[in-house]
Amino acid sequence: MFEKVEEYKKLLQDAKASTRDELEQFRMKFISKKSVVSELFNDFRNVPNEQKKAFGQALNELKNQAQEKFQTLVDALDSAGPDMSEVVDMTLPNIPGETGSIHPLTITRNKIIEIFERMGFNVASGPEIEEDFYNFTALNFPENHPAREMQDTFFIEKGPDKVLRTHTSNVQARLMEGNTPPFRSIMPGRVYRNEAISARAHCFFHQVEGLYVDKNVGFKDLKDTVYHFVRELFGADTKVRFRPSYFPFTEPSAEIDISCFICGGKGCNVCKGTTWVEIGGCGMVDPNVLKSCGIDPEEYTGFAFGMGIERITMLKYQINDLRLFSENDVRFLKQFEGTF
Fold first, then answer.
1. Judging by DSSP bridges, how do beta strands 122-123 and 301-308 pair with one another?
2. Average pLDDT for residues 325-332, to the nearest whole number?
3. How are beta strands 240-247 and 204-214 bridged, if at all?
4. 98-139 confidence digits (pLDDT tens)
5. How many CB atoms lie within 10 A of CB 310?
6. Looking at residue 87, what is its pLDDT?
7. The model's pTM
8. For residue 93, cis peptide bond before it (omega within 30 degrees of 0)
9. What gap in Å lies between CA 118 and CA 111, rounded to an integer?
10. pLDDT for the residue numbered 310
């Protein structure tokens, strides 16, 4: 034991530290709680009683010597100035940061909002976790409607049902409930469907729906609104057609098709040779929906429409895989730098 004390004293005398790293190594070896000096103190109980006094004095001398040596090395490094290997050269040119880009879905969403705001529509929002009443019942969905079944909807709780909203129509129901028309709003947001993920489908996507309720609102008002929106977004030469369809919350209902702006009516893989592409659905608000929300359908009428933001973005920028929007691949996103 005494031999180790003498050995460590000799090491202390010869110790040097020309850098902060070497100083830290010295501290760990001789000063820290796990140092060789601390280990000797831990072994003190194994020293014979007749040697404890002498060994204790030797240990204290070693401890004091280590602390003094450490302070000497610290003072020497401080007086020598900073370690040039750790100094940042402020004269070096800055590393340029990469310019980010707006996500293509955000670009399309902002453009849609801009167009409808110019037509007098405001923007409304609502919860993504919704009650059954606002997501289905208030919108005239019968109890046996397929959209209520598990293959379409993510149910959060049962009895009373809470779901991840399947459309932003829930915002329309909340907007009409307890308020007096007129309403002229669009409802952009994220929605959820229990679908297998593929190039054409995903378990979540984005919609923008619109609602206009007032006195004497007719189907012509709906058509004029859609015509103006389509030509603002896709170009003045874009044609629009309405195909009869069915939605529980509108009557009459129609699908909205536009002329294919990619092939110009010649037929391509986007329009599948038909020269038309579908962008959304629309119709006159069903009187039952107005009643459910406390609005007199004898006094007020209205129209509603909805479209997928992903679908419009895919058409506008000729993107062929829906999954690209949520994979965060920088190579894909960088293509939209400077696009607004």
1. unpaired
2. 88
3. unpaired
4. 777 889 999 999 999 999 999 999 999 999 999 989 999 999
5. 23
6. 62
7. 0.68
8. no
9. 11
10. 93
Q: And the tokens for 79?
A: 């007086």
The three-state secondary structure class of 255 is: strand
Pairing of strands 204-214, 301-308: antiparallel
**Residue ranges of domains in the chain:** 2-81, 104-336
For residue 67, give the DSSP letter: H
Nearest to 60 by CA among 79, 81, 77, 44: 44
Q: How many beta carbons lie within 10 A of that of residue 33, not counting itself?
A: 7
Q: Which amino acid is at 255?
A: E
Alpha carbon distances (Å) from 248 to 50, 107, 142, 260: 99, 31, 8, 28
The mean-pLDDT minimum among 179-188, 273-282, 292-301 falls in 273-282
Give the largest Cα separation in the chain, rounded.
111
Q: Is pLDDT of 150 > 70?
A: no
Structure tokens at 238: 């874009």
Residues linked to residue 262 through DSSP beta bridges, in sequence order: none
Fold of 104-336: BirA Bifunctional Protein; domain 2 (3.30.930)
C-alpha pair distances (Å), 191 with each of 105, 204, 317: 14, 6, 22
